[in-house]
Write a structure and sequence with these properties.
mainly beta; 4 domains; 3-stranded antiparallel beta sheet; 32% strand
């Protein structure tokens, strides 16, 4: 504790002096021993002061408080602190998630609608220099793309000028779609079904699904009235003064 003393001089006079007070010193800084905590706030904490120990990306968790004892005068006094509970977040905030995987707020990791399987995502910390931070490596497994029905697989090939099956291209198994008539053809659409096929005996991979379909009856609409033609009882005939056999068809433009 502070005290006042008087020191005698040779001339028998005394000079008052003060003693007992020394500077308050900071505690020893925390030496990081992993990638999970950020201790940058605790580099030089004086006696009686506190600092915050935070989780470091890609870890998340609530921070804790470190304290240097009040009145500390020993530079070798360790900081009193508790390590926060930090959980590895994968992928790191802002990084894209691999195609085919979705992180649901309730179910956790699941496969995307166009994938199947049991999603599994694991994360590890890469080896590296702790002082410059460590990166999380994410490993995705369990989700495989679902093969879809493609119009290009149809046999015989679909006449795209007569039939409209755009809603069937890329259709997932067990889904329905419509095949209609392309203008100017007219007719009632039919319903097609993307049927999933069992894989061949000598294969373990998924077989390509097949579009189970019946093409609609597409016909040409009646053209505008033209000289030389007349419709009788639903049939086109040559009008009076003309000879031959009337034929109605949808003529396609010539490709140049």
């Amino acid at each position: 504790s502070p005290s006042t003393t008087c020191k005698p001089k040779r001339s028998c006079g005394s000079t008052p002096t003060l003693s007992g007070c020394v500077p308050i010193e900071p505690c020893l800084p925390i030496i990081p021993d992993g990638c999970d905590v950020d201790v940058s706030d605790c580099r030089s904490v004086l006696g009686g002061k506190t600092c915050e120990i935070r989780c470091q990306e890609p870890f998340v968790g609530e921070p804790t408080i470190g304290t240097c004892p009040p009145g500390n005068i020993d530079v070798d006094t360790p900081l009193m602190w508790t390590r926060p509970t930090c959980t590895l977040r994968c992928p790191r905030l802002g990084l894209p998630i691999k195609d085919g995987y979705i992180k649901d707020s309730i179910q956790g990791w699941i496969c995307a609608p166009d994938h199947r399987g049991d999603a599994m995502v694991t994360c590890n910390i890469s080896e590296g220099n702790i002082s410059v931070g460590c990166e999380a490596q994410c490993f995705y497994s369990g989700c495989e793309p679902i093969e879809v029905c493609l119009n290009s697989r149809l046999q015989p090939p679909l006449d795209a000028c007569e039939y409209n099956a755009t809603g069937c291209d890329g259709l997932l198994p067990d889904r329905l779609c419509e095949i209609g008539c392309m203008p100017p053809y007219i007719g009632s659409p039919t319903v097609a079904y993307c049927a999933e096929m069992a894989p061949p005996i000598n294969r373990t991979s998924q077989a390509d699904p097949v579009l189970d379909h019946t093409l609609p009856q597409c016909t040409c609409p009646d053209p505008t009235e033209t000289d030389g033609y007349i419709k009788v009882n639903g049939e086109w005939q040559c009008d009076e003064g003309y000879a031959g056999m009337a034929v109605k068809q949808c003529q396609r433009p010539l490709l140049g």
